[in-house]
Amino acid sequence: MIKAYATVPAGFTVFSDATEMTFPAGEQHIKTLSESAQTPSHVLISGADANDYVSAAMWIDHGHQGGHTVTAKIPYLPGARQDRGTPFGAQVYANLINSMQADRVVCFDPHSPVMPALVDNLTVVHSDEVIAASLPSQGRDYVGVIAPDAGAVERARRAADALGLPLYRATKVRDFATGKLSAFRCEELPESGRMLVVDDICDGGGTFMGLAQATGLPKDRLDLWVSHGVFSGRAAQIASAYGRIFTTDSHPGHRNPDVNATIVPLAAFLEVGVNA
């Protein structure tokens, strides 16, 4: 879905009065008022539905035709995990985003550096800033941060530095032909105190269940931060292994009631680049 925003003469940001619609033949369109005192500001795109990107492109074109600068906020970059192999999904989605011709694009904690290098006019908001600002005060008693696999080490390191905590590394083996995960290992952990696992995406939760078993820690010593809560399939199982689960509202999946995650709104953190 998209949410389009504009500013009014009083200086407030409001929902745009130019709204999305679909013609009977199926084409996306933006329905505009003949006279409006609004100034288009930015459009927020959640999820990976290509129709939403066409609607956003229509709204951006509406803004440009009025002589305005428009930002696209895309907290969850679609295709960012498709950063290798054939088809090269990251490039395909980057082409789609670039075709919208937004003056700026703002994203949150992309999966790897590959797709950000393909998107024009991109500003990246990293998760360490959000983690440090958003964890509840009672959660500051962590004694360490765990990176669940090699791909998570850099973002977990940034989070550990922001929280002033040591970093512990875990590893796993993935069979890319089947997707099966195995051979979970974790560095030796402190004998007491709570640990925070930090990663970018939780889809079905297999990585985090395997990690929890490898650490041997009870759920009252293990919390989880994932920037993007897709929470599909068997994701609800992670609630049995982690005391608290934190995510943001970057992806529609964050609403999964069976996961019962604490949701951190991203709006304030995505203001970078808007109307700059």
What does the model show?
The chain has helices spanning 50-65, 89-99, 127-134, 153-163, 206-215; strands at residues 2-7, 13-15, 19-22, 28-31, 39-45, 71-73, 104-108, 122-125, 142-147, 167-174, 181-186, 194-202, 222-229, 245-248, 262-264. It has two domains: 2-125, Rossmann fold (3-Layer(aba) Sandwich), CATH 3.40.50; 128-264, Rossmann fold (3-Layer(aba) Sandwich). The chain is an alpha/beta fold and 276 residues long. The longest helix has 16 residues, at 50-65. The chain has a seven-stranded mixed sheet with strand order 11-10-9-12-13-14-15, with helices on both faces. The mean pLDDT is 92. The protein is built from five helices and 15 strands.
Key traits:
276 residues, 7-stranded mixed sheet, Rossmann fold, 6-stranded mixed sheet, 5 helices, 2 domains
Short description:
The chain has 5 helices and 15 strands. The chain has 276 residues and is an alpha/beta fold. Strand 6, helix 2 and strand 7 form a beta-alpha-beta unit.
